[in-house]
Structures are given as structure tokens and as C-alpha cells.
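Job type: complex structure
Entries:
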Amino acid sequence: MTRKNLFLGLAAILLVSCNNENAGNLFETADEEIAVELFSHVKRVESIEFLNTSDYEEFLSPEMRSQISKDKQAMMKVSASNNNELDTIYSLSEIPVIKEIVSKNIIYASGKMTTITQDITPDEENIINTMTATPLLPEQTIKKTETKDGMLISYGADGNILSSEPYEEPNMKPFLDSLRYYIDLAELESSKQSVKAQSAFTKIRNSVMPAGVNVWQMDDGNIVIEEIINSQSENEMRVKGVSGQMRSRTITNPEMDKTLRFELYQGNQMVSRRTYQYNGSDKLKNSVRIKGSALENPSGIISEVLFINDRGIPKIRKTQEEYKQNQLIVHF
Amino acid sequence: MKRVLIILSIISTLTFSVDAGKIVFYIHGTFAETASKDHSDDDTHKLGIYKRVFTPTNGTLCWYDSRNKLHDIGTHCYNKYVKTQETNNDVILVGHSMGGSVVRTMLDKSSNIKGIITAGTANYGSVFFNKLSSGDVWFFLQDMYNKGSNAITVSKVNIANALLPGSSFAASLTERVCKYNSDKDKTLNFLKTGFNHVAVPVFNYIYPCLNEMAQNSNFNNELNAKKISVPYINIYGAEDAWEFVRLLSTQAQLKDVNSIKNIDKTYDEDGVKLLNGGLSVVNFIQDAHDVLYDVMSVVSIVVWKYKSTKELVRQARYNWDGLYKYIQTDMHNEISKYNGSYQYESRTYRYTILGRTYTMTSYVPVVRENDGMNCDKTVMLPESMAGTGGVIYNVRATGVNHMEMGNHKKMREIFEQAFKTNTYGSVFKLQQTQ
């Protein structure tokens, strides 16, 4: 990879004050030098939706319309003015799930890493618990998972240990070294006056395109990166019943410091799309911070993935994520 | 002389009335006899503990061969055990699972039978026995296996490694995925082993009693057409949402479960611990994907081509979300299809996210109370089925799975109430034994 290939996103970073607002004092940290911190507080809602015309026109290829037309219920839902009519969930995997997760990950300069994940979903929003006449008690349900000092421990609501097992701690030192390399590289590039003057799109156009990648700019200035996916895991990612080469399309803002949208196709059939929201007003809470600069992280992500259910009906698995905090701080 | 005989007769009757005891016969469930080599070991009889705790001198364990029709088993138990001891005694019959159906066939055989107790008996037939023969039950295991394999492949093959070649983070993620893979196999093996304990005898042989125990069988329809004219304590287990895994855990340690040395202990935790371990690993890997995604956000600022590939990390995470949900809930709900506790109910959900409030109303599958094998609906009988002199007590055994019904604190409490107090009437209250 040449330096020309590098996108100088750091140059466009918005300078903000650097007050260290982390995920509250939920967790204690070891008295060691911290290299990277990640704090996240996200509410995630997973639901299954019909391919109705108003919201999912992009997914409705002639093949999809044909498949839906075979199902009376699906047709009714597609043509309905709203989706609130009584529906039947036949497959358990279609039960909506609401989760609110707070997590903290710390990578120390020594290469040690600790993670803590807490499930703080309010009981009244825990739909899964209403699916049985005899739900698990809070102390029987995993509310917190922690990795520390070579142990992976899960806890119930009362802080009771539900499972505890040793795990081999990864050494993150080489990872930190490579991250540092990328950041230093970007800093170096961004300091060059000739490069500073160029737009993000020009820089990309001037760089060597990897095979199977196309980049272009749309009328509104946003940039599209299209890439043919040839990976071993392609088969597992494919939507069954849809043929064609897999390709992805990433749409960023003109500065290329924000991903606005991501799309996945099999042939000409859209099989997945993700849209990103930025609130713009709370960059400290939703941000990537490096060397006193901050880049805005999304405050909301809506992901919609096409799948064919057990009855052969195409549906959308929708995941909505609302970040109350989405913060990555690099301390070097 | 005639008067003397009459007086003697009256005295004799009075004497016998005063001395008449209550004797209790315990009848095991399907295939329980296979656990005992000589049919005399109390520790291998599902109800052996109750015999020793409550009726050491007036209790009898009944054994039978499951390869028979239920009426024939009832006749065998009556002739071999009850008939020889019933004279001048009140008889109480206790049955576990299918043994409860055997008990009900014996009601017509003697007027000395004054009360019956059954535990986990599918009075309306067992859906489980209907489903076993079709092999449907295996699908849920297969489904879990596929979900696990899919999540692992998408994660480890090249998402992590391709994005950050040579970084130890990718390696550590792969390592964790592999660890999950090993845990998944452990979980799957546990389920298969436990399942074999429960199901293999059924798969291997066609027993007439199993057909009779199935839902809507002629046997059950005929039995339920008759009124029950003695007091009847009908116990049903109500385990928590992981009932089937608890059932398998118990089944896998049957020897300890049925031992008098271990009275009131439960052995239902192993499977739950295993699944909790699996869930925490999945939790961890979900978190690792989030870390990887966030870190890729930094790297992709610098290296633009990573902008699209980092999104594949998120794509991979959704597979783990699906797997987490499947282990936590779906596989237990799937099992409920096989024990008859699965039903549809209308539910409305409201939630607010990203500034919008959503309302959804759906018919969704809901799991009724069940003991892993049978649900309340298939066990409970209406009070209207009680005939003259009869009364039906449907009693809920909280936190008891089907295989724990021979030794669980809650069950012993119910038996204690029946045998030592008047909670369920005087019929069941035993005299103090010597």
C-alpha cells in the first residue's frame, strides 16, 4: 500500500475539546497505562418486517414480487397502508428482541485487554421473557460478562456468578503497533500541503485502485465505493435463493469521514442495506478520538437484511441501533 | 350360638376397622424398570425415596415391564402387589408419569383403593411420544449446529484476518471463535447424550404403551370418559424457561437423583451452566466484533478501502446475535412444540427507538408451564371429572422437571402435606407407622 492510497481522514477531523467523558463509572480500571478505550451504550431492536412497498422498494425486484405474490398474508401486508394489522409470527426467530447494552473495552499499553458487557434492558421491554409462562429469574439470566485476568465470567442480576472459565488472554501489542502505524501515517500525509489542498475524491482517484474496486462521486458530492466480494465467507453471507456475484457499495460524505450508507447486492438484488444517522450535537459521546481530535461516530444505525423464511416468503430482518454512547479513544 | 357368632363377627369387624392401615403402592413411569437389575433396589425406582421417607413399613414399590399395554400393566401391578396386601387396608396408589395412567386403570379393580396421586402424568396424552417417532426433535439440534457453524465461518474465515492481517486482535478473535466452536460441540454432545437417555429406548422399540400414551389415543379418550370417584392429587411440574435442558441434566444423573442419600437435592444445573458458558462466550465474541468494527472505523479513516470491508464485520455480528437468541430462547421454545406447551397468543409490543415509537401486534408462540416432558394443559384435569366421592386437586410443583419428580424438595413438601396433614382430605393422611 502506498501513501497515496491513504485517505487523509484525520485532516478533516473536527477539533473539539477533549474532556474525557466515558461510560460513567460503572467499571473500575486497573492502574495501568491505557492505549485504547471503547465505550458503548446501545439500544438494539431486532424485528422482522414484510417487504412492503413504501419502505422496501429497493429490495422488491421482480423475483421478490413474484415470491411474495404466492403468499396471501404477505400480499395483504405489502398492500396494507400500515403494518399494524394483526400478524402471526410462525418462526420463533421472528420474535422481536429489544436489548440495551453497555460495554467497556480497554486495551492497555502492555497489550492486555479487558472487556465488560452489561445487559441493562428494562424488564418491561424484554419481549423474550414474555414468551414463556415460566421466565428465567433475573439472577438466572446473564446480565454481565467480564473478561479479566485470564477469566471469562458471566453474572446474574444479583452479581451472582453464572459461569466462570479460564480463557487465554490475547496479546494486543502487535495490534497496537499496527494501529499506531496507521495513525502516524495519516498524520504524516495530512501535514503535506500538496495533499491538504486535494479533495477526498481526488485523492482516491489519484490512488491505485485495488482489483474489483470502483469509486465515483454522485451529484450531491457523496462518494460511492463499490467492491466485488470474493471471500471464503461469501457463501455463508449469501441470501439463499438469490443468485449472482456479491458486491458491496459504501456511500460516504464528500469528506469521506462519515459512512452514510452501506449496501450489499447479489447480482442486481439488494440483499442488505445499512443507513447511518449522526446527531452532530454530541460528538464527545459518539466519537472516535485520536490525539485530541474527534471524528463523529453514528448515533443511529438501521440495518435491513433480506432473508427467505421457512415458508419461502422473503422478509426483512431489521436491526435498529440507537447509540447513547459510541466512543473510541486512542491515547497515542 | 348364633348370637355369639354375630357378636364375634361385630367385634371382629370393629377390631379390623380399628387396625385397618393405609398402604401405599408406588408405580414407576415408562422404562424405569430398565434402570434396575433386580427390581428391588429402591434407589432405581423413581418413587423409591417417598416409599422410604413416608411409608417405610406400609409402602410397596411396584415394577412392571414397559413392553405391554397399559391395562395389562395395571392388571399385573394389581395382581402382583395390591391384591396380596389390600385385605382390610385402605389403598393409596402413587404413579409417576406413565405410572399415573397405570394407576388410573387400576381404579376399577378394588374398592379398597381410596385415593390416588400422580406426578407428571399426561392425562390428555403426550405430544412428546407422538413427535419422537417422527425424528422431528432432532431438527432443533441441527438448527443450532447450523447457526453456530454459520456464525463461526463468517467471522473467522476472513473478516478478521483479512482486515487486519498479522494483528493479534484478528488472531485472538479467531481463537475465541474456535473456543466457542469447542463449547458448541460440548453443548451439542451434552444435548445428544441426554437426549439419547430419554429417547433412544423409544426410538429402538415400538411399545404398545407408547401408542396408548400418545395424544388423542383411544386409551386416553376412554379413560377420560370415566368419572374419578376417589380423591386424586394430580401434580404437574412447572420448571423455568430452560426446562428441557434441566430435564436432560437430571436424567443424565439419575442414580444420584433417586438416591435417598441425596434427598431434596436437585441435579438440574449442568446443562444450564453449559449453556450459560456458551452464551457468555457468544457475548464476548459479539463484543469483540464491536471492538473490531470500531477499530476499523479508525483504520478506515486512513485506509479508505477498509470502509466497505469494515461493514462486513457488522454483517458477521448479526449471525452471533441470532445464535445468542437461539441458545437463550429459541431452542427451548422449539422443544415446547414437542411437549404440547406451545400455543399462539396475541401480544402487543411498544418500543421507542431513534425518536420513533413502534407498536406491533402479533400472534406469537408462547410456552405454557411445563416440566420438560408434559405441560400443565396435558396433565391437569377439570374438577368436573370427579365422580361421587371423588375430588380432583391439580397441584403445581414449582421448579420441578419431569425427571426430578422422585426427589425434589417441592415434591416432598407436597407428599408431606398429603401424607401427614389434611390438606388434601383425610384419605391420604397416613397413620404414624411404628
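Summary: Chain B touches chain A through 89 residues (CB under 8 Å). Residues 1-19 of chain B have pLDDT under 50 and may be disordered.
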